Amino acid sequence: MSYAGDISPEQAWQMLENDSEAVLVDVRTQAEWNYVGVPDISSLGKRTVFVEWVGFPTGARNADFLNDLAAAGIKPGQPLVFLCRSGQRSIGSAQLATSAGLGPAYNVLDGFEGAIDDQGHRGHRGWRALGLPWRQS
């Protein structure tokens, strides 16, 4: 099933800033949240919702994904902004949320770090590279 569409990290920030109902859902793994960093939307008076799309280290899809969203307080009609590392896992997340009647659901292009470049590195694109707020634990 289709989702509402792909948006840039800047568009995601604007949506989160301008729509009090919009929710940022980071679907990366616990390991990524701990070691790479997380978006920080606290200046907007909001919190990021963290729900793994796949588990680490197995890579198995989270069968409780929709239940985890509900447990985090996600309700039908709320705009959902899904973010992963590079904008790939978040597509599946947005599609599943849409099929379950949630959303509108959006995918953040380039995710938190962007795709791997020609030198085999990440971090030149995405949320963090654009200087949007983030933190590391």
TrEMBL record:
Q: Which Pfam family would be a valid example here?
A: Rhodanese
Origin species, per record, is: Lolliginicoccus lacisalsi
Q: Supply the name of the protein.
A: Rhodanese-like domain-containing protein
Coiled-coil residue spans: none
Q: Which PROSITE patterns match?
A: RHODANESE_3
- Give the Rhodanese domain ranges: 18-124
Mind telling me which InterPro entries this protein's record contains? Rhodanese-like_dom, Rhodanese-like_dom_sf, STR4-like
- Source domain of life is Bacteria
